[in-house]
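**Folding the chain**
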Amino acid sequence: MKSEEFYQQIEQRFIEWGREQTDVHVAYVAGSRARLDHAADEYSDLDILLYVDDPKQYLNENNWIRNFGNLNTAIPFQNGGGGLEWLSLFEGGYQVDFVIDSLTVFQEQAAKGVPLDWFRRGSRILLDKTGTAQRLIPEQFEKTDSSPITAEGFAFTVNTFWFLAIYLAKQIVRNELWTAKLRDAECKQVLLQTIEWYEKMVHGESYDTWHAGRFISEWVDQDVFQQLNGVFGRFDAADSWRALQETITLYEDLSRKLAAHYDYSYPEELVSEVKQWIQAHK
């Protein structure tokens, strides 16, 4: 079965099930399977947001998910927005994420009439027993707002990066490679934020950098993209050193350009000390 056919079947089964549940009131599809820009491919999952009387009833157990297909597993998860959901894996490797919230929350959101940020790139109604679900759908789909650069935000990220750089170096010296990899992920988050700011500096504040590095090959400048080839290292000390050095080189180049463009101060003493320590211990 092709993925599109499978997810259409899931949606239809959900609609039929939802109509029969007196405590399920509204449901939406969001994410890639509701987007027009960069629409879903065969590997995209399905994201369903449902509003119910008592979310705990649906969060405490997952047997209700079995109404929609042959369920392999479902894992409870707290998403980045603070909401609770089930990450569900069905037979065939198909994933459906069920985000669950209360009818009270929906009523408050609908009364405001402000579309959810999650819906701004694409969303559609799957079930509506209230007649008001359309209030949360944007009139026009567009990119979501990203964090604009500020002097305070830049200072925090630049100090965080150099703090993490010396921390990573120490773990590599100690051959604590697992710890180094965990902290390197945090370092790369700072690098990504800086890349996003840099691209907006070059192309304008309205330039679309998506989120979490999605479609980065499409929106990042090619010279930056080429340098990204070297910032991820293997699980050994020598290559971890190399990757750290290349990460530092790229980050410092972009962050100094940002500082010069926006007239932000740069922590020269901190940078000098970190570089000296790394040079002495590599």
